Amino acid sequence: MQTLYLARHILPVTAPPIEDGALLTEGDRIVAVGPRREVASGAASASFVDFGDAVLLPPLVNAHTHLELTHFPQWLCQAEEAPDAGSFVEWILQVVRIKRSLGMEMYQPSLEDGIRRSLESGTGAVGDVLSCFPARSAYRRSPLFGRLFLETLGRDPVQGRKVLERIGHILGEKKAGRLFLGISPHALIPSPANIWRRYSNRPVGTR
């Protein structure tokens, strides 16, 4: 089934903007892009969607997000803390402190809200970093594409092994919704060396 999308301007990104443009799809594939008169002439039986005085362009990509923290401002208010205006280190310590005060059930609604806001802003793909692994279920019905990075953080080797075991099981799921699963050791310094040795030759998405 073909669908013809019309807009005052179409922005292909790889080519100049098209005024009074049209985009023709068949199923989930784009089969033609160009001036309305040219594209519509070959799609007489297509249904159409007219966006009117608008710009039609590819969805945005946010390559580094922490959508589970969408409700962080509310969590600060609940903890009766003000946003930290000090150094980066002080801000990180505040983030860690607030996260440690939360129940696991707080993360999924926050992630769901982050997904909603991303879609409303025109984002179609993300590279999202997730520390609360059960919250990944929020992506199961999401139209977002991209990669979901399961975060490891901390220098305790025993705890690190436990986290890696959990991640290993989850990676077997391959995807969360439309997002491919990957692993994200937080940084070289606060991660046990065995994480990097174990995954340095493994073809999973690392940041």
Model description:
The protein is α/β, with parallel strands linked by helices. The protein is built from six helices and ten strands. The strands form two sheets. Strands 1, 2, 3, 4 and 5 form a five-stranded mixed β-sheet that branches. A five-stranded mixed β-sheet has the order 6-7-8-10-9. β1 and β2 form a beta hairpin. The protein is elongated and about 65 Å long. The C terminus is likely disordered.
Write the layout of secondary structure elements.
Layout: E1 2-10, E2 18-26, E3 29-35, H1 36-41, E4 47-50, E5 55-56, E6 60-65, H2 72-78, H3 88-100, H4 107-120, E7 123-130, E8 145-152, H5 157-171, E9 175-176, E10 179-185, H6 193-199
Parallel strand pairs: 1-4, 1-5, 6-7, 7-8, 8-10
Antiparallel strand pairs: 1-2, 2-3, 9-10
Averaged pLDDT: 88
Could you tell me the number of beta strands?
Answer: 10
The shape is elongated
Q: How far apart are the first and last residues' alpha carbons, in Å?
A: 39 Å
Q: Mind telling me the C-alpha Rg?
A: 22 Å
